[in-house]
Amino acid sequence: MSCCLKSPKGVTGLILRISFGLSLLLVGLNHYMTMEAFKGMATEGLGVLEPLGAIWALILPALMILGGALFVIGMYTEIAAWAAGLALASVPIGLLLKPIMSGVPLPGVLDQVIDSFIWLIVLVLVLNMGCFGSCKTEE
Known about the structure:
Radius of gyration: 17 Å
Oligomer: single chain
Helix content: over 70%
């Protein structure tokens, strides 16, 4: 039997998956708990796209919570990847729209863009070594 808990890489993958999932879940919950501030931050600088930003500010935390929870329990990996990936990939896109739509200086958003790409890189790591499912027998 080859199991997640029988190799250092498996244990690391399991810990990474659970900590990433919990972090994503907690960030999503925090966005809902501070919705007015989050909505203001999400819509600020989008110009004519502010109504779209307001709608996305309601959807984004739900995707984070769904993806994070599914990563924590290690089930429905495809849904977890779609939910988390869509949520996380939308952040740099939204941030980079702000300089185009309203003249927000590009250097003002680059730190946040880089942070959001770090989240996406960790998502890739989780999907590549996250120890999903049960133990499997080798033949």
